[in-house]
């Protein structure tokens, strides 16, 4: 019998089985256990460490970019002096890597994979083999992407958005970087699509007995919504990318005006995906902080259902906002008004989510171990990203701020908190479950405060430069007279990035130390009530000794009359010592 | 320190409107931002765990409790409509209206330079009195300039910060637009859409002249 059988009555039977009888037998040997594994936890770790490696790569590219902008044409450590072509390639690859090879594998591939089965009380994903295929496809895409640095002509250099006709322009047949870029991105999408089938099917079909849809932790909802959004929006982009590939290799001319094509078509296909993608990256992090804030507030998450419905609404809205990236692209200016209105209205569902998170802090019994610092830090920093977005969303003011450093500052204020604050929050919080050891609190706090100070030091200057009129993607700002006063701000931002890098060292040390040493015996060190904390730390093959049943919602903290300040989801009413409703 | 005091000098007729829109958004979202951050920090200091004091049990279920977040969200919606209404008026004025032009100029972007074809006194392109320049756009002060923006190869973007003007140049399309410069002087022009290795050198100069200086320049 396989776990892929989804009838609920069989799941009931599974409940009675010993874990060793779960679906597929526990693999033996190093390769079966850690390399070609179908176990969702191992796959999550594979995604996590590939993603962390790519984060180092993307962060290194950021360092090269920042050095060049502050000290153009001077020597730097670890990298030769760059020219304009290399600079364009490096900024293109920085964006591509950070979005597709860091944000998605870590927030969805790693956290989604590790937590969804544990949180719903299941022994694995619905389709374990598909899950494994998803990671290996992802690894191939990673290799293709990294290989593109070494092809003739170097990596793609048309910006992470790869607008034609620049991206299909064939200069002395050095188009291989762009071809590799398209192949890598397409493979990565295939990988996330295959994983995505699991992230949606598993919570819908394999919840522990007694667990209703609205007993799911908000993290699982966010993963499902993010994956659903991704699936709805990714088709047009894959089609657009394939057409681009044909343009490059076979000169089909879909985007070439001299052959009757239109370069704007690609922008529509790209942003139809590109904007939902922002929420694909944001929602998992909202899920992570939605788990962490209640635990360290000892409070029920305020407005669970409004949060779930708001994110679904925001997700659906995000499908009809794409052209706000194109206000000055040359599309019909009459289209600006509807897209501007839908864009700005998205602030309403997100304000419900953010206000609910803030409301959870009201009347709380707050403590601030490292995960909580990251969670509240994410809220505080993301507010800057959210509010600066309105200037871009309003078509008229976007005429000015579009493609300036204001936009660069804005989206780093959304994406850095969403990706890195969210990731650190999740890692410090779930590390005890992942590896059976707690990360060091002192190092964690140094890491948090250093990162927060230097993150702001890096990106506040960018907001200012954008307002002062500094356009993006310029290799040497000194070549424009009106940018002559920007030098100091560039230097401040660059020192900010140096600091940001230096303060990742405590984290790297912490991670290595957190992999070794004596394991803790406490399965639930944060005294949390969601299902994953019932499993051993780290959970063995099959996750739970006995598959659990669910008796209540995920956030029963500080309930009046209860013996303790939290009532876990898995505790039967009699044991919990409270009367049945 | 105000973020938007970093704006460069505005010299176009619609610059003031756009700046006031940016300031309006700045103040509206600024109030929300300070409110939200203020609440976060107030709660952080006010609701620390104290021995023997349990946290409140507030789930936010029911309309009365949920109104704590729904009412502020509705206020956000009202602010949204205010910003949309003002923004739409400004957008309409800049991008959808086309005042009667006094001067015509055709702007052609290519890798990696700007070429300007000034229509000359007859207001017609491709006539003998056209003045073609590379990297210098001449316009008379206080006159409506209508431009036609084209690109020969890839997407570029005409970016004149002091005019508050930005418009992509797309190969295969002629995109019309207008501006009215109201102050004599020389101002920077950049390309704000990545267009290749020379993106970083794709600058030009806007020269705003008095009518007589402009007429004299045309004759030369």
Structure description:
The complex is a heterodimer of chains A (581) and B (220). Chain A has 18 helices and no strands. The model of chain A is unreliable at 1-21 (pLDDT under 50). The longest helix of chain A is centred in the first third of the chain and has 36 residues, at 84-119. Helix content of chain A is 62%, strand content 0%. In chain A, helix 6 (176-205) runs antiparallel to helix 7 (218-250), helix 7 packs parallel to helix 9 (304-317) and helix 15 packs antiparallel against helix 17. Chain A has helices spanning 8-16, 30-35, 40-70, 84-119, 128-147, 176-205, 218-250, 263-297, 304-317, 336-345, 347-361, 370-393, 395-401, 405-435, 441-467, 487-502, 505-515, 573-576. With 581 residues, chain A is mainly alpha-helical. Chain B has 220 residues and is of the alpha+beta class. The radius of gyration of chain B is 25 Å and the shape is elongated. In chain B, the strands form 2 sheets. Chain B has a 5-stranded mixed beta sheet, with no helix packed on it. The two termini of chain B are 47 Å apart. The chains are: A mainly alpha (581), B alpha+beta (220). Chains A and B meet through helix 4, helix 8, helix 9, helix 10 and helix 11 of A and helix 1, helix 2, strand 7 and strand 9 of B.
